[in-house]
Amino acid sequence: MSLREHLRELRRRLLIAAAGIVLGSVAGFFLYDWLFATLSEPILEYGSGGEDDRLTAVAFNAVGQPLDLLIRLSLFVGFVISSPIWLYQIWAFIMPGLKKKEKRYALAFIAASVPLFLAGIGMAYTLLPRAVQFFFGLNPEGTSNVIAPDIYFTFVLHLFLACGIAMVIPVVLVGVNMMGIVTGKQILKSWRGVVMLIAVMSALAAPGGEAITMFFIMIPLTLLFGLAIGLCLLNDKRRLKRERQLVPAGS
């Protein structure tokens, strides 16, 4: 396709993805009360009793905040619910440049990226209470935590999206390898930096320096990265084999 046709195709894919997010956001509107209560639970539980009993609450401090939070949480739910749609649109834009056999692999990676993204969201949800406990534990004695919802839910949504996207990155690496943008060896050369980045992300997502929680995050991300490298190297080997078969003998 020409550059103009590529741009038209990109626009069409973006419009479909945006429509999916909007429709998912309608569902998020109806789930708002439940989602607000569920994500606020770690804060309320922290002040519910025990040796560290103190006042904890999510308090609105502006007239328009409830509406703003309703829109943001609804969009987040729409983003998660519509993940099969927008992830497919990404791959559908890439797939015309792939060969028939490579397209089958791409469809498999589409099927893998959705559960991986949702698994990352689930992992972030399990880590949220630990994060709240750690940060609230840094409070000086006699102080309370009355938090504005825009600040708290920004932290929550960033944590969720970071974990979700981190789980999908290995799939993206395999995709760009199939497109011929990077080789498996190029990805392999950067393994030290990637492992270091995974370790830093895991440490940040496991407040308090808890080794068990850190490894709980780090191990699956590292294994996924290693699997992505293996698939990229295998794809490079197959591509090289095909190219050698296409070269006439004696040339």
UniProtKB/TrEMBL annotation:
Q: Which locations, inside or outside the cell, does it occupy?
A: Cell membrane; Membrane
**Membrane-crossing segments per the record:** 12-32, 69-94, 106-128, 151-176, 188-206, 212-234
InterPro entries linked to this entry: TatC
Membrane topology note: Multi-pass membrane protein
Q: What is its main location?
A: membrane
Q: Which UniProt keywords apply?
A: Cell membrane, Membrane, Protein transport, Translocation, Transmembrane, Transmembrane helix, Transport
**Source organism, top-level taxon:** Bacteria
Name its GO BP terms in alphabetical order: intracellular protein transmembrane transport; protein transport by the Tat complex
Q: Which GO terms describe its molecular function?
A: proton motive force dependent protein transmembrane transporter activity
One of the record's GO cellular component terms: TAT protein transport complex
Membership in a protein family: Belongs to the TatC family.
The protein's matches in NCBIfam families, at most eight in alphabetical order, are given as: tatC
Quaternary structure?
The Tat system comprises two distinct complexes: a TatABC complex, containing multiple copies of TatA, TatB and TatC subunits, and a separate TatA complex, containing only TatA subunits. Substrates initially bind to the TatABC complex, which probably triggers association of the separate TatA complex to form the active translocon.
Query: What is known about what this protein does?
Result: Part of the twin-arginine translocation (Tat) system that transports large folded proteins containing a characteristic twin-arginine motif in their signal peptide across membranes. Together with TatB, TatC is part of a receptor directly interacting with Tat signal peptides.
| Name of the molecule in the record | Sec-independent protein translocase protein TatC
Q: What taxonomic ancestry is recorded? A: Bacteria, Bacillati, Actinomycetota, Actinomycetes, Micrococcales
Q: Which gene encodes it?
A: tatC
